[in-house]
């Protein structure tokens, strides 16, 4: 006896979101074809640009415009909901992750700092998402200027893990 084939009516309907993503990927490949022989692969120049930018800035201040075809990390657009689940925005998520990181810092260092604002963030994939966040915090009991912090926080829906949190190193003059 032949096994019965069951057709799911829903799967026959076009997936508009997937179709749009596939069209965008095709457009990206077409745009990139001017770089090399009609391929979406990266080359040594892409590697050089990414490595140079990473050495200059690390993950936190990585300028994603320096990427061509080798995508190293993505900027977080605070107004979007690319990672966050609506109605939360990515900015809300970064704010929440910043608070979690700052709480860890306060617990570890016996400080009483409060979050002023999340400044910016980059993200990359890594067992969920790894957010490289720059935020400002200040002493809750004084009127001093805010301190800029950097935190690496893993986010997997419902699970947040703070890998690092520290004041941003001062650049040499």
Structure in words:
The protein has 173 residues and is an alpha+beta fold. Helix content is 32%, strand content 26%. It has helices spanning 9-12, 16-32, 44-57, 90-109; strands at residues 74-75, 113-125, 129-139, 147-156, 159-167. It has a five-stranded antiparallel beta sheet with strand order 1-2-3-4-5. The chain is globular and about 50 Å long. The model is unreliable at 1-14 and 27-39 (pLDDT under 50).
Indicate the topology.
Layout: H1 9-12, H2 16-32, H3 44-57, E1 74-75, H4 90-109, E2 113-125, E3 129-139, E4 147-156, E5 159-167
Antiparallel strand pairs: 1-2, 2-3, 3-4, 4-5
Protein name: Cystatin/monellin superfamily protein
Region (Disordered): 1-42
Biased composition (Basic and acidic residues): 7-21
- Provide the number of structural domains: 2
Uncertain segments are: 1-14, 27-39
What would you report as the Rg, rounded to the nearest angstrom? 21 Å
Provide the spatial order of strands within the biggest beta sheet: 1-2-3-4-5
SS element count, helices: 4
Structural features:
single chain, 5-stranded antiparallel sheet, 173 residues, alpha+beta, globular, Nuclear Transport Factor 2, Chain: A, disordered N terminus
Summary of the model, kept short:
By secondary structure, the protein is α+β, with helices and mostly antiparallel strands. The protein is built from four helices and five strands, in the order H-H-H-E-H-E-E-E-E. It has helices at residues 9-12, 16-32, 44-57, 90-109; strands spanning 74-75, 113-125, 129-139, 147-156, 159-167.
């Amino acid at each position: 006896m032949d096994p019965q084939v069951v057709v799911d009516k829903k799967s026959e309907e076009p997936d508009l979101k997937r179709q749009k993503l596939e069209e965008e990927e095709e457009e990206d490949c077409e745009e990139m074809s001017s770089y090399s022989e009609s391929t979406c692969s990266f080359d040594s120049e892409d590697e050089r640009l990414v490595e140079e930018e990473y050495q200059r800035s690390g993950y936190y201040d990585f300028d994603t415009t320096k990427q061509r075809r080798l995508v190293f990390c993505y900027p977080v657009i605070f107004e979007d909901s690319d990672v966050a689940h609506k109605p939360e925005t990515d900015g809300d998520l970064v704010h929440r992750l910043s608070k979690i990181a700052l709480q860890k810092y306060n617990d570890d260092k016996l400080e009483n700092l409060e979050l002023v604002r999340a400044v910016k963030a980059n993200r990359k994939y890594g067992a969920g998402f790894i957010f490289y966040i720059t935020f400002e915090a200040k002493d809750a009991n004084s009127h001093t200027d805010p301190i800029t912090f950097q935190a690496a926080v893993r986010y997997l829906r419902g699970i947040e893990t703070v890998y690092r949190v520290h004041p941003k190193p001062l650049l040499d003059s």
